[in-house]
Amino acid sequence: MDPFTLTGIVAIVALLGLLLFGVHLAVAFLLVGFMGTLTLLNSTAAISLIGETMYSAIATPTYTVLPLFVLMGAFAAASGFAEQAYRSIHQAAARVPGSLAIATSFGSAAFATICGSSLATASVFGRIAYPEMRRYGYDRAFALGSIACSGTFASMIPPSGMFILFAIFTETSVGRLFMAGIVPGVLTATVYALSMWLRAKRNPRLAPISDEERAVAPRDRVKALGGLWQIAILGTVVIGGMYAGFFTATEAGAIGAMGTLLFGLANGPLRRFQAFRGALRESAQITATLFFIIIGALFFSRFLGLTRIPYNLTLFLESWDVHRAVILTLILATWFVLGMLLVQTAVFALTLPILFPIVVGLGYDPIWFCVIAMKMNEIAGVSPPVGLNAFSLAGSAGKDVRVDHVYRGVFPFILCDLAVLALLIAVPSIVTFLPDLMFD
User: Fold this and answer.
1) Do 229 and 84 lie in a common domain?
2) Most confident of the following: 98-102, 290-294, 427-431
3) Under 8 Å between Cβ of 357 and 400
4) Can you give the three-state secondary structure of 167-231, one letter per residue?
5) CA–CA separation, 121 vs 140, rounded Å?
6) Domains held by the chain: number
7) If 23 and its partner were Cys, which of 18, 59, 186, 231 is the partner (CB 3.0–4.6 Å)?
8) 3-state secondary structure of 113
């Protein structure tokens, strides 16, 4: 084995070790990448490479999409849009078995159209939906599982912060990824809702129907949906504007952030200086952390390029005499295992620069592949032992909730995710027809 390849293998093992010991993702990428470059070249080259990476990671216009949509999500979380979505859909679904869980599923999907963070969605709905479900006598595992898994919709439904990171790591179009995530996201929310309804119908003790729900009249259901008008306007303007070609993803982020701010001021929450300052501070912290991770990941991927590991791996897989579906299955299995051990951002920052060219070289559609990867991200977000959505929900739902309580409720929803994943693999046009329609 040549010294370059050996250095790359040692670096990957060292990186995984640092991540398992809890070292910050960006620090681990930068430290291992710098020491590896120093070993292969010299200190001058290592410093020059990290400096050039830092400049290119900030100076590229594409990256301005990220802070704008992060700001939009922070304003949305502070403005009470999640409460609006949840209460409106619950009123509309009253008397339906599992109505509160169904409201959580579709409410999370609606909130995801203006908030690109799955962790924020799970945390917000943990504070809103979980107390209501328990007050109505819902089973704890059923309630927590529905909230944790529904929170992952913000990873798929635009404006998804993870899709922006995918666009950066794979150099694909943010707009195409946003369009590609709409149908799979809505499809997953619908499959979740059907699962909740069937489970609650078969076992009413999971989700009792209260007298308060039975008293809701049909006209009240229709009237309740009117509470979604602000979310509908924002989602239509941002996503519809990109689809119609009126503005780019960056312009959509700016319009969405401004619209969310104006609605937040009109509704009242953002008039309080503390709430407004908190939203700005949160968006600044998230943006700074994400840029730090992006710089580290890009630097580490450039170091790996020096070792020629990605190139050699590509040659090996392309010459491997097996069906391309076998290679895709191995990649998905690798992501599933890594996602159970590491933070999803680390998994994709480490693997996408290596695996993405291989998959595209095998003839798979790059946009479709990114959506499949995002589906794996959703599953990993609630899978033990490192499911971040589960931890976020356990921290926000109350002192009586532990993360193992959340894990007990997620398994039926993971089965739903796997069913949707199989459908997306079997029928790729579910993913690709909207972006193809938009750009053709």
Assistant:
1) yes
2) 427-431
3) no
4) HHHHCCCHHHHHHHHHHHHHHHHHHHHHHHHHHHHHCHHHCCCCHHHHCCCHHHHHHHHHHHHHH
5) 19
6) 2
7) 18
8) coil
Element (H, E) at 152: none
Q: How many CA atoms lie within 13 A of 91 on its CB side?
A: 18
Distance CA 391, CA 397 (A): 10
Gap between the Cα atoms of 260 and 183, Å rounded = 24
Report pLDDT for 341: 67
Statement: residue 416 has pLDDT above 90: yes
* pLDDT classification of 371: cutoffs 50, 70, 90: very high
Res. 68: pLDDT tops 80: yes
Are 297 and 398 members of one domain? no
Residue 25 has pLDDT above 90, yes or no: no
Same domain? For 40 and 130 the reply is no
* Euclidean distance between CA atoms 100 and 138, whole angstroms: 9
Residues 112-130 have a mean pLDDT of: 80
55 shares a domain with 65: no
User: Is 77 among the domain residues?
Assistant: yes
Helix axes of 388-397 and 118-135: crossing angle, nearest 10 degrees: 50
Q: Are residues 416 and 318 in the same domain?
A: yes
Please enumerate in sequence order all residues whose Cβ is within 8 A of that of 236, keeping only pairs 6 or more positions apart, or say none: none
Q: Quick check: is 194 in a domain?
A: yes
Mean pLDDT estimate for the chain? 83
For residues 294 and 272, the answer to whether their CB atoms sit within 8 Å is no
Global pTM? 0.81
Same domain, 6 and 98: no
Range of the domain at 40: 1-59+291-307
What pLDDT does residue 359 have?
85
Q: Is 281 inside any structural domain?
A: no
- Whether pLDDT at 198 is above 90: yes
Distances (CA, A) of 58 to 30, 123, 353: 16, 30, 18
What does the pLDDT read at residue 430?
A: 93
170 and 104 inside one domain = yes
The answer to whether residues 299 and 421 belong to one domain is no
CA angle 39, 42, 43 (to 5 degrees): 105
Burial 18-28, CB ≥16 within 10 A → b, else e: bbeeeebbbeb
Which tokens hold the place of 113?
A: 């159209």
